[in-house]
Amino acid sequence: MKLHKSNKEPEIYYYFNVNEEKLWMFRHKYYDSTGKRKEKKKSGFETEKAAIRSLFEVKAAVLNGNVRQLDHEKLTVGEWLDIWFELNKNQWKITTIVTRERIIRLYLKPMLGRYNLQKLDKTTYKRSFINPLMSKLKPRTLKSMHDIFRIAINAAIDDEVLDRNRFLKISIHDETLQADKELNYFSPEELNVFLKHAKENSSYTIYMVLLALSYSGMRKGEALGLQWKHIDFEHNIFRVEQTRDQHGTRTPKTKNSYRNIFMDENVIREVKSYRTWCKQKMLASGMKWNENSYVFISNETSYPLNGMALQKPMNRIIKQLSLPKVSPHGLRHTHCTILLMNNVNVKVIAERLGNTPLMIYGTYGHVLKDMEKKSAAVFSEALGATGAEIGAN
């Protein structure tokens, strides 16, 4: 193919294709981030003006230091997800690795992998990924997938492969997510009935786990990670220093998750009795109990309790008592909600749950709004009780 130089721009050329149609192209030489000389070229423009405009965009990118975007302009979403995963997986916890690998393999790459990373726009993303999954997945699940994609895109920005994140302002049925949070907890009366039934009809260990989750606000993994050395019986404290699930024992979720939780005296008394039972149970199973033994053990095997063993007993109790459907994590929501409804300081609650006040406000906004409405009535009632006849009275 013979190239002919443009009279307007030295890096612009025209040529004739097999159909003798006149087309335009540009060829621009530049240095990449390592100092290596490269050439960027693009053909197929129908007009000289269009070729010049595209050339100027490339030159602007080089002048602005966006050379890496030029180097990766053909990178697909699937290729970037593979790069991002391999570069960062050693910094993630095992549960994060498993979750992200599955979402990338089963959803992100099949549905978005073929698109050019730099050209994927919000409309295409919603049409090809969000909308098809709306009717198939729970909003919470879809939101978690969307969050992972946004994290991967932010990583591309940090690596100077992209200039901005186009997918920040995408809402996934926020009202449905909020309603889901509102339903996933017991009232104080329901919790009392639930725990009483668990004590009378469930295994000793299942009851004790449910009791601990309800009265401490711990995450399920934090409770399963408790060893006897983490319980201070003298000061009535549970120390959260690790978490445990099917992938093993590791450090807690965040720095805030390391904490001491003051426990009710009655709960501590029950835990002491349970400790005696554990010692006898492990001895009968030919195991040696010590301070490093995990607190919650299986009634059948005396091995540390599996986290999957909680949901079925909970569902059975809930069905028998016709209670709202609450998950093990819902007991954490129950703990926080009851404290909020009884006017406990948000900062104190956040420290107890291993969260930040901002997270409490974001997750339990529906409870705080109800409290705000009640506060206006409480204030008026307080003034009315004094017999005041000023102001609004």
Can you put this structure into words, describing what you see?
With 393 residues, the protein is of the alpha+beta class. It has three domains: 64 residues, no CATH class; 96 residues, DNA polymerase, domain 1, CATH 1.10.150.130; 190 residues, Intergrase catalytic core (hpI Integrase, Chain A, Orthogonal Bundle). The chain is 53% helix and 11% strand. The protein has a four-stranded antiparallel sheet, covered by helices on one side. A three-stranded antiparallel sheet has the order 5-6-9. Strand 5 and strand 6 form a beta hairpin. Helix 3 packs antiparallel against helix 4. The N and C termini lie far apart (91 Å). About 2% of the residues have low confidence.
Name a few traits of the molecule.
3 domains, hpI Integrase, Chain A, three-stranded antiparallel beta sheet, 16 helices, 393 residues, four-stranded antiparallel beta sheet
Read across the widest sheet, the strand sequence of neighbours is 1-2-3-4
Assign the structural class, choosing from mainly alpha, mainly beta, alpha/beta, alpha+beta, or little secondary structure: alpha+beta
CATH topology of the largest domain: hpI Integrase, Chain A
CATH architecture type of the largest domain: Orthogonal Bundle
Series of secondary-structure elements, N-terminal to C-terminal: EEEEHHHHHHHHHHEEEEEHHHHHH
> What would you call the shape?
elongated
Radius of gyration: 30 Å
Name the CATH class of the largest domain.
Answer: Mainly Alpha
Helix content: 40-55%
The helix tally amounts to 16
Strand content of the residues, in percent? 5-15%
Low-pLDDT residue intervals, each spanning 5 or more residues: 175-180
N-to-C span: 91 Å
The CATH fourth-level homologous superfamily of the largest domain: Intergrase catalytic core
Largest sheet: 4 strands, antiparallel
Number of strands: 9
